Amino acid sequence: MSTRGATKEAILSTSLNLFNKYGFDQVTINQICNEINVTKTAFYYHFKSKDELISELFSFDNMISNDDLLDILSVTDFADQAMKAMEILVKHMVRLGVEMTKENYRIHLRNEIPPLDKSKSSLLGSIIPTLIQRAKDAGQIQNPASAEDLLDSMCNIANGVILNWAIMGGSFDVLEETRKRFGILLVVK
């Protein structure tokens, strides 16, 4: 890994630790830089702001592990594969905890960008719609809407459930609730 890559990873890791320990608003860029002994120039080489850093922490890049892929592929039912793929996105969105999820939504609200953005993820952009269409063709999904419309609805449901989970302080099983809502939408057989 290059020094720049190592620095970026160090900044991300250190920032996350500091945010979790002191809270997002209480941590400064100077604190992050001092903690890992890098210059502010090095920080700004990778991130324009703390908000951009949060967006990177929640990015979909390299989020699917081999275990996640095996989990999706272990199921032969296309509808279940589509739901498992969406669950990976939900799991990824909430993996950093309630407070960081709130910050992520705050940033997305301010920038008017949906947290689950099809243009930023091949999983959302092409894989899940293909799985939904295959499930529809196999009669596993009864909702007559197009695969694209169903995916858009799944993204809206996931965003709503995740946001509610964050507002409620993580007081319910977000994956279970999301799966339940997906099943209702898709009218799964």
Properties at a glance:
Arc Repressor Mutant, subunit A, 189 residues, elongated
Could you outline the blueprint of secondary structure elements for this entry?
Elements: H1 3-22, H2 29-36, H3 40-46, H4 50-57, H5 66-73, H6 78-94, H7 98-111, H8 122-137, H9 147-167, H10 174-186
Helix pairs in contact: 1-2, 5-6, 6-8, 6-9, 6-10, 7-9, 8-9, 9-10
State the gist of this model.
Pfam families: TetR_N. By secondary structure, the chain is mostly helical. The chain has helices spanning 3-22, 29-36, 40-46, 50-57, 66-73, 78-94, 98-111, 122-137, 147-167, 174-186.
Unreliable runs: none
Q: How large is the radius of gyration?
A: 18 Å
- Kindly state the percentage of residues in helix: 55-70%
Q: How would you state the average pLDDT, rounded?
A: 88
What report would you give on this structure?
One of its GO terms (molecular function) is DNA binding. It contains ten helices and no strands. 70% of the residues lie in helices and 0% in strands. It has 189 residues and is mostly helical. The mean pLDDT is 88. The chain has two domains: 47 residues, Arc Repressor Mutant, subunit A, CATH 1.10.10; 121 residues, no CATH class. Helix 8 crosses helix 9.
